[in-house]
Amino acid sequence: MIRCFLILSLHLCVTILCAQNRELLGEYRIGIVGQDKKDLIYQATNEGAQAAALELGQKYSIDIELIVFTPEKSQGGSQTDALAQLFIENADGLLISPQDTEAVHASVDFATAHGQEVIFFESEIKGCKPLALVLADELEAGRMAGREILERLPTKGRVAILTKEKPSVELEQRMEGLREVLGFRRIETIVTCSADYQSSIEAIRTTERIDRNDLIKGWVFLEDWPLLGMPALPWDAGEIPVVAIQSSPSAFMYVDQGYLDALVVHPYYEWGYKGVETLVEKLHLNRTPEGHIVHTDPRVVDWRNVEDYRESWKKWLK
């Protein structure tokens, strides 16, 4: 045990000395950890981070190295392993969309205790104290979805809402904003499912099958699970209005074919840009952000601006 302790202590000393040396030379290593490598919104975040690193490197004449360690869940990857690897890589700062687990919580606490600056984006862990939070305004996203579906509903028409069986804080906030706009009189049912394509399609089909009196006149998806595969919705394109929140590029097929009327999307690119900008200002200028929480604004995408949004994804996925 003494030998292990000495080895760990030596490693920590080397890590600290390396970090201090890089700081003197104007060299910084920043790690990026999304939740799943297959989720393309984290590719957009990476592009924003790369753009910020390039611009700030030129502005301050410093070298910023980005290390992407977003795990691939289907291959057994985890954020805990990614965080451990970033510690070994001597990262000076960390930008992470954290999963709310004890292991991730402990890993983040360990990183901050040993001098790494940490910023959360997209979500947070209660009890953790990162340098800053870059969070989407989920309440407003829910309100936007409510306003978009109301515009398309017939008079007194009611909607079904799709959410997760055990909703996250972010999904609960979206629901709160949606209820605020719709009111209970315009909500026919709330449908829950597992957070995957097949489960969501089955839940939607079951709900439509038992709606024998045709009371559901529209749908709001609080996530984009039903849009992650080929169109398999139990109605014809354009038959009923549908609005979805937080969508990946797969949604374009649904917009193009007329299944989806509007998307409420978050600025994934801005998450990466703002996160790296805040980290560099802290690491290089010792500038602490004025506000601990930075809220980013969602926006609506429909037929009027879908081509512009499509072009943005082409750049992010280059």
Low-confidence stretches: 3-19
From the 3D structure, determine the CATH topology of the largest domain: Rossmann fold
End-to-end separation in angstroms reads: 49 Å
Quaternary: single chain
Overall CATH class of the largest domain? Alpha Beta
Count of separate structural domains: 2
Helical amount: 40-55%
Number of strands: 12
CATH superfamily annotation of the largest domain: Response regulator
Element-by-element helix/strand order: HEHEHEHEEHEHEHEEHEHEEH
**Main β sheet profile:** 6 strands, parallel
**Overall morphology:** elongated
Estimated share of beta-strand residues: 15-25%
Mind telling me the C-alpha Rg? 22 Å
Number of helices: 10
Major beta sheet, strand line-up: 2-1-3-4-5-11
CATH architecture type of the largest domain? 3-Layer(aba) Sandwich
